[in-house]
Each structure stands twice: as structure tokens, then as C-alpha cells.
Amino acid sequence: MTANIVSTGLFLALALVLPGYLVVSGFTNTQVSGAGLETIEALFLSIVLSSALTGIVGLVLAQVGWFSLPALLIVLLLVSSAVAGVVWVKRRTLSWHVTSSSRIEWLTVSLIVLGAAVLFLHPHQYVFGGGDAGVYVNVGANLAQTGALLIEEPLLTEIKADLLPGLLREQYPGAATRFIRLPGFYLSDTVPGLVIPQFYPLHPVWLGIGYRLLGVSGALSVTPVWAIFSVVAIYLYGRSLFGQRTGWLAALLLLIMPLQVYFARYPTAEPITQFLIWTCVWAFTAFGRGRAPCGLWRLVSGLTLGQVFLARVDALPLLLIPLGYGFVLLKRRQWSKSEWWFWLPLTSLIGYAFFHGLVFSRPYTVGLYRWIFPFFWRQFRLLVVVCVLGGALGFWLLKRRQWWVDSRVRHLPWGLILRYGAAVTVVGLAIYAYFVRPQMGNASLKADWYGGSQVVVTDHENLVRLGWYWSPLGIGLAVFGGVLLLCNERWSQSWPLWITGGAFTLLYVYRIFNNPFQIYAMRRYVPVVVPFFVLASAYAVSWLWQRAAHQKIGRLVGVALLVVLVAWLVWNGRLIWSQVDYVGAVEKIAHLAGVFEHRAIVLFVDEAPVGLGAVLGTPLQYLYGMTAFDLQEDRLDVDLLGEQVTDWIRAGRPVYVVKNQASSSPLPLKECLVSAGSVQLDTPRLEQTYAHAPSAVQHVRYEGEIYLVEPACQLRRE
Prior knowledge:
alpha+beta, 5-stranded mixed sheet, 29 helices
């Protein structure tokens, strides 16, 4: 046990600190170059750079099938040695010269990290299949066990083509592949026996690292760590741009926000995306303000923004940041060599993500973008036309303002007019989204192929539903803070915040692109919208405290609003804080796996579109090395199945049948089945509802009977 802890600590020191420390030292090894950087910032940037290197190297190893901790360590040591050599040759020192952080700063960051650890490090035990969270964990575990991102399953090539529709679920017409192996795993149409995991790879790589270090519990603990780093990034960004008070207020509010707490424990890619995006915005703003060392800030910004495209398929709105910055550079005609520190890693990683999407995640990428682009064109073409015509009209009027602008306002700065115009627009959109749209819109139904049913579409209530977790007061405070930001802060410094936060808020408040059951649908808001609202609210409270015209009244109002908001968040989030979904599931799945023999083939009988085969078959297959099939009862040829089972038995593979107790489908191979036990899994999770925020805990029960296909009987039948 002690040796394992020591080895884990050494690996984390190398993977999360050393390479980044050496890079930071290369930029800050003189008192002049490091004067603009504090110790806490330098340490955090070391973690950011080290994690970037580790994630990218791990992904490359996973793509070529060489993923393992020893291989990863060797590459990290080689890269670190090379960086150290370059820094030593140029600077003759490996130490950094940065400004010491004050004790208050150390105490503040320590309290933030401690508070986040206490709240976040209780991961939900999503190891079941059938949902995104469990699929992520199983992809990471399989990567750790096999060393490859893509999964080769030779047994599938031995199955007769006529039997496949009875063993594998067929997708809807026009899908990127004909079959899914299990939910979240595509079966390639072009390479026999090749299974392609869903989702983009950066998060699964880190889950694989966590799994290799500490098993399933290590994989589940990866997401809370990213969430902790995210809160620190929000604090550092808020402090650097708006002052220390805004920074720690934003960190406090984000810490106790129910959505942040829940999804910090939920093993999907939202927390790592949140960490990368807000670190990018912080670093981008820093070099935009001319903070030294500019090359370091550019490097961090380019690396973090580029990595988002390896973690999320919906990262396209973030391209507005480099597009906006490129426009600024062209307008100013100012290009320095240090610009390459931003553009080279960014474009390289975006190109790498594009390559990965086409080669390693083609079904997922093509399947999404095949309908995303037409959808956006249908939905936003009118907006595009209005913007183009409005921009042209505005430019024409601007050129001829002498005859249409009243003499009393003719000399007002156009920047001021645009600021107040934008502020009025924000207020108008917020009023429409929160008060008007819910009254005008109606819930509708849409077909859900995956669940085999219809789901409710409630996009007209999106902002109201976000208020279920952030509070109506929080929504109003965020809008007020946004208006203050537009009116008071320099646009040259705050535009990355508005481009990022505004784009994703408009997108997901307009259309959430998700099955809107609670609390699952709210994950769309976690990477950007939740921190954006938190920062705006913290700014509003800080402004009331410090800058209100009547300071005493402003402070009283600010404190009162903060106390009410914190009290609401704590009270409203008490269930989420205390709830750990599927607690005990890891041990129960391990116990279930022990029922089956080594190399077992498990056939699940359950006609539900997402039944026991998906839920239990996925971890049995990818955590415990068995072969699971979710039988498609309506398309199953029982005679062909019998022949295939005989072949498996002759090859030395034990075959089991698991039937859901609620299933009405007949048992295949009934004459040769011998009872081998039962499935009795009972585990709690937050209730799932469409009508309101979760207010109770429900118990999920999976019950079934396990049968062994008796080899001698089956061989006699054939």
C-alpha cells in the first residue's frame, strides 16, 4: 500500500509539475522576465503545462496502441530532459524568479482547494453502461487494460453475418455505422471486428491514467480533480481582471453551486473542459493586457484552447477567440515573434483534433456534424442575414452621421453608445428568455431513437430551468453584473469573457441539444455558462461594495444579496451535496463479475432498448474482460444462435444467459440452461424528472436470473 502511494505521488509529480516547472523557469529565470508572475500563478501554470504535455503524449500513445504508464513516464522524462537542457544552455539556471505571493493569497488558494476537495471528492460511481458517464469510465478502463483507444474484437469476425442483427443493435437509417457494439461503442463497417468508442479522447486518456494508478476509484477521482483546478482558474482569472474580492467571491459561489458540485463528481468531460476554457481565457486576457512574460501566457492560452478541441465536439464557438484576435492583429498590423507561442500550439492541436475526428472518431464526428451544420443554417440563417444587413446599414449611417444624429449627441464616443446598446440588448434578451419565452412557448415531443420513446422538448424554459439551480436572484444578479461589466470595464480586456460566455449562453439557452431530464441536461451549462454567471454575479456584488454611488447603501445591499444567494444555494443544494449516485456500484459489479467464469460470453435477454445488456454488459465487457451481447429479440435467429453457441463452447468459451425478471421474451437455448445465480443490484441515484429540479433520491434496481449453457447438453443438441 505504501509503495503504491509513493509511486502514485512520484508519477503525479512528473506528470503534473516537473515539465511545466521547467518551461515556466525558461520564461522567468531573470528578475525582469518573472517580475509580473506570482508564485501561485507560476505553480498553477506549471500544472497546466505539465497536464497538457501528459494528456497529449498519452493520447498519441493510445492512438498507436502503446499506452501504458511506463511508456508515458519515459516520454515525459525525455521531454523534460530536453527542455531542461535547452533552458540550461540558454540561461545557465533552472530556477525561476517570480514575485512571492502573500500569505493571504496562499491562505485563500489553500481554502479554495480544501473546500473544493471536501465537496467534490465524492465521485458518483458511474460504472454502468447505457449513459455517457459510464461509457467514459469504461472507455478509459479499456484503454488502460489494452493500451489502445480503438478496440479490436476478433470474435466478432467469426460470427455469421445473418446472426449479427440478433446480437447487435442496428442504428437508424443514415447513421455513420450500421451497428453499435454496445451504447457508446460503434462497430466499424469497414474494418472487421473493430470497435470505435464514442466521444473525443482527451478525457478518456486521463481516466485511463487514473485507472492505471488506482483502479476504478482512480478513474472516478479524475473528474473531481479537474473541477478543483477549475475553481482555482476562476479565482485567478477573476482576481487578475476584476480584483481579489471578485475572485474569491466567484470561487465561493462556484464552490457551492449545486450544478458544479454534482458534475464535479460526474465522470464526463465537462470539468476538464471547464478547466481548459477558463485557464485559456485567463491566460489570453493576461497577454492581451501585456503581462510578462508574454510568451508564457501565449503558450498557455494556445495549449489550453487547442486541447478543448480534443475534449469536446461542441467547441466550435471558441473559434471566435482566435478569429477576434486575428482581426485585431490585422487591424493593428502588429506581429511579433512571440505571437507564434499562441498560434503554433493552437493551430497544431486544432489540426490534430480534426485528424483524430476523421481517423479515430469518424462515426461520432460525422454523425454529429452531419446534422449540426444544416440545423444551424436553418435556425440562424435569418439571424445571419439580419446581422449582415444591420452591419451594412450601421456602417452607412456611421459614415453619414452628421445629418441623422442630433447635435446634442453627435459628439458622444461611439464606444459609449455601443456599450449602452449592448447592455440594453442583454437586459432585453434576459427578460425575454426568463419571462416572455416560457409563456409563449409550449412543450413538444420528439422521437428518441436511442431510448425507443419520445422525449419532451422544453427549450422555451431553458433559462428558467437554469434558475432552478442558480436561483431567480442569481439570474437577476448575473444579468446586473453583465450590464455593469459592459458599462464599466475596458472592452479590450473583457471581450474574451463576453465572446466565450455570451456565445455559449445564447447557444444553450436557445437550444439545449440534450434530453432535458434533470439533472442530466444541465451539464451543457457547466463548462462555460455556470462560471460566466458566477463571475458576473460576483462582479455585481463587488461593485455594490466598492463603487456604488452611495457606498453605505451599496454595501448593505451587496451583503444582503450575497447572504440571500449563498443561503439559497446551500439550502437548495443540500440534497445534491449529500448525494453520491450509485454508491456501492463498483463493489456490486465486481461481485457480479465473480459469478461468471474466465472468458465468459454473456447473452442478455431484455427487450428494452437500453436494458440489462447495456447497463451491465458494458462493465462486464470493458472492465472485466468478458464478451457481452445485448440480444435483439425481435431479430434473433434462434437456430443460428444455437450453432454459434456450440462453436463458442467447442472453443472453450463458457456461455451464460442473463434474463431480466421483467422481460417477457422467451429464453433462447432453454433446454440446456442451468441456473447459475441471480442479479440483485440496488443502488441510489438522484431522481430523474422532466418537471422540476430533483428533490428526492430514488433506488435503481436491476434484477435478473443467470443461467449457464450446459456444454454437454448443447453439444448433444447439435
